[in-house]
From TrEMBL:
InterPro entries: MFS, MFS_dom, MFS_trans_sf. This is MFS transporter. Its main location: membrane. Pfam families: MFS_1 (PF07690). The chain crosses the membrane at residues 21-48, 54-77, 89-108, 114-137, 149-170, 176-198, 210-231, 237-256, 277-301, 307-328, 340-359, 371-395, 407-430, 450-473. GO terms for biological process: response to antibiotic. It comes from Streptomyces aquilus. One of its GO terms (cellular component) is plasma membrane. The keyword Membrane applies. PANTHER family: BLR6921 PROTEIN, MAJOR FACILITATOR SUPERFAMILY MULTIDRUG TRANSPORTER MFSC.
């Protein structure tokens, strides 16, 4: 079996190099579309609620309907990519995601929008799950791989912040429908480029690894886990605990199945890698912090500082600019000189500092003194940490497991993001409500103090990520 993505041309080294970097551009374009969509909705939520008549709990499903299938199917999609070919999985995912985006943009009712968002999650999982596996196969040489991962990470990280800006700009200039319809031209161009540029590879075949009972168990477990996390604030504690117990039971059944299956969906040996397991654990904590910052930060600007949709999106623009410049200009060289481990620790330390500063943002704060400095610290920290963490995770996987390892790494991103959003938003809301019930403060002050608590807890989560990385990912011999 060959899982290496060959160059489609035999014209020589320069052509092969061009082909590989052109393939990277295509992979980044597909990834950018899915990442933009994960964030572009945030600023447009009030407009969607007003237009379609969502209740506050119902509005959350515009996000949850995407996250649940996206997070639940990443692992399965990654393994299927190894079996049927990663190019096939990637291009099919682009088609599903683009078609679902059009349905979202044309939606005139709540049910249609939520169903289309769920279909978007399926397409997003199909494309995202195999990208890192393709990237590692394209760039096996360590230095080139570090550069490629830096480019890929820059696109992903900048895309998240750019989505906030585009969501505000499109909603205010046109309507919320266009935050989805914009994916149509992007998706068509990305699909045409993928078909032309990406070289196909022969997968193992479905008969050699399609453990369908295991797939059902793990997909159900992951979807239920994301559902439990994102809806924790809207249900009774007893119900949450029962659902969490059911998710744990499904995971246990899946693990037992994989230990005994002749052709397991997930080779459990994957988790014997200290680097892969440790990097994924660190990523859950780091992404929980960063995703919580993006969501709570946008709310702070709107509900405390009084920013509109477009101004909120514009306020986040320094983040993608800083992340892009740092990742593309310094990341690969810094990792090459100091090593991924040291760069990761430095990046996590900057994230801790940024969240700690935000934990002091007052009700009468200003963007230039209370938001921009920590925003830049967080951007620099993420620009350093993410490529280093990605490289460490993928270096711990065998070549034949690259697609599956990519699916696992993307899955922990979704779990971490969902966890951060749920925990920090619930803490902020609970703190605000308690202060208002006590009657000791105004709405704006109570809201600001609620966000302060969320940022402070986010700093604590980042400290936990830093400590875990320092212990678990330390190179042997240091």
């Amino acid at each position: 079996m060959s899982t290496t993505i060959e160059s489609p041309t035999k014209a020589g080294p320069s052509s092969r190099t061009y082909s590989r970097w052109a393939s990277l551009v295509v992979l980044c374009a597909g990834t950018l579309m899915t990442i933009l969509d994960g964030n572009i909705v945030t600023v447009a939520m009030p407009a969607i609620q007003s237009d379609l008549g969502f209740t506050a709990p119902g509005l959350a499903w515009v996000v949850n309907a995407y996250l649940i299938p996206f997070g639940g199917l990443l692992l399965l999609a990654g393994r299927l990519g190894d079996l049927v070919g990663r190019k096939r999985m990637f291009t099919a995912g682009l088609v599903v995601f683009t078609a679902a985006s059009v349905l979202c943009g044309l939606a005139t009712g709540q049910g249609v929008l939520i169903a289309a968002r769920a279909l978007q999650g399926v397409g997003g999982a199909m494309t995202s799950a195999v990208v890192l596996g393709m990237l590692v196969a394209l760039f096996p040489e360590p230095r080139e791989q570090a550069r490629a991962i830096a480019v890929f990470s820059a696109v992903g990280a900048a895309g998240g912040a750019l989505g906030t800006f585009l969501g505000g700009a499109l909603t205010e200039a046109l309507s919320w429908h266009w935050i989805f319809l914009i994916n149509l031209p992007i998706g068509i161009v990305a699909w045409l480029a993928a078909v032309r540029v990406l070289a196909g590879e022969a997968g193992e075949g479905l008969g050699k690894g399609a453990d369908y009972p295991g797939a059902a168990l793990v997909t159900g477990a992951l979807m239920l886990t994301v559902y439990v996390i994102v809806g924790a604030g809207d249900r009774e504690l007893t119900a949450t605990l029962l659902l969490a117990a059911l998710a744990l039971a499904l995971f246990t059944g899946f693990t037992l199945r994989q230990a005994r299956a002749a052709r397991p969906l997930l080779r459990l040996r994957l988790f014997r890698s200290r680097l892969l397991s440790g990097a994924n654990a660190v990523q859950i904590l780091m992404i929980a912090t960063m995703y919580g910052f993006q969501f709570i930060g946008a709310l702070y600007l709107q509900r405390v500082l009084g920013y509109g949709e477009l101004l909120t999106g514009t306020a986040f623009l320094p983040a993608p600019i800083a992340i892009g410049l740092l990742m593309l200009g310094l990341s690969a060289r810094t990792i090459g000189r100091f090593g991924a481990y040291r760069v990761l620790l430095a990046g996590l330390a900057l994230i801790v500092a940024g969240m700690a500063l935000l934990g002091r943002a007052p009700a009468d704060g200003s963007y230039l003194t209370d938001v921009l400095p920590p925003l830049l610290l967080l951007s620099a920290g993420f620009a350093a940490a993410m490529p280093a963490l990605t490289g460490l995770a993928m270096s711990g996987a065998r070549e034949e497991d690259a697609g599956l390892a990519s699916g696992v790494f993307n899955t922990t991103q979704v779990v971490g993001g969902s966890l951060g959003l749920a925990v920090l938003s619930v803490l902020a809301a609970s703190r605000t409500e308690a202060l208002l019930d006590a009657g000791a403060t105004t709405l704006t002050t109570a809201t600001a103090q609620g966000y302060q608590l969320a940022f402070q807890v986010g700093a604590g989560i980042a400290i936990a990520a830093l400590a875990m990385a320092a212990v678990v990912l330390r190179p042997r011999g240091e």
